[in-house]
Amino acid sequence: LLYKIIRMEKVEVVSHLAASISHEVRNPLTTTRGFLQLLNESKAIPKAEKGYLTVAIQELDQAERIIRDYLTFAKPAPEEIESLNLKKEIERAINIIVPLANMNIVELSSELESCYIKGNAGLFQQVLVNLLKNAIEAMPSGGTLSILGSVEKTLAKVTIADNGVGMNDLQRNRLGEPYFSTKEIRGTGLGMMVVFRIVESMNGSINVESELGKGTRITLTFPLTPSVEKSNSYIRILN
Ligand code: ADP
Ligand code: MG
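^ thats the input. predicted complex w/ magnesium ion below
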């Protein structure tokens, strides 16, 4: 038990720190990138030396990607656990990834049932956006991304399916391993690690089905929060 408490405090400190990093480090990264870009356009700098600038810019872009996969929705305040409307949360995440889907000519289809699960809205957004982004990135020359939110008995299910490049068994097994990425310079290999950690903290589970060249279907399962119970106690308070 003691070990668990210490671990939880550590997690809280880390997520606090993470949020500050995300907010405070992004600005100087952007400024630095802007100045390097300007130098890169300068006529006074020899071509050979511009190679250094190009590498520097690429490395800054990688830092930006790491922050994005890891910390986009982190909040400086302690993480609050609330009742999340699954349908609303998924719609929010879809809105965020629409531009990326359009860029890759990916068609979106969604069927969402309204229900409630317990979790932190920011962290759950991080999960959904990372999964949706991976699905779109798996379809570089277009495809269909379908998102299903449904209720099955006492469980809420979210299914994200793409008909993209898919994974072999080895890749599927390495999913969630820190820094595992097949995207060469454009990947961080942190997205799925974050997804697994957050889903676990929500008492949820993840199922991955994938076939090379066919596509991938990821199913998240969470315990349902009975919304009826919530409204009953609300009425009781009013009375
Ligand atoms: P990144 O996206 O930065 O590579 P992730 O942790 O998000 O890191 O994903 C790790 C790897 O898992 C990806 O590089 C890719 O090989 C594989 N992967 C994840 N989602 C999918 C998907 N929907 N289809 C095919 N491969 C995927
Ligand atoms: Mg990713």
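The pocket of adenosine-5'-diphosphate (ligand 1) is lined by residues 69, 130, 134-135, 138, 162, 164-167, 171, 175, 180-183, 187-192, 216 (CB under 6 Å).
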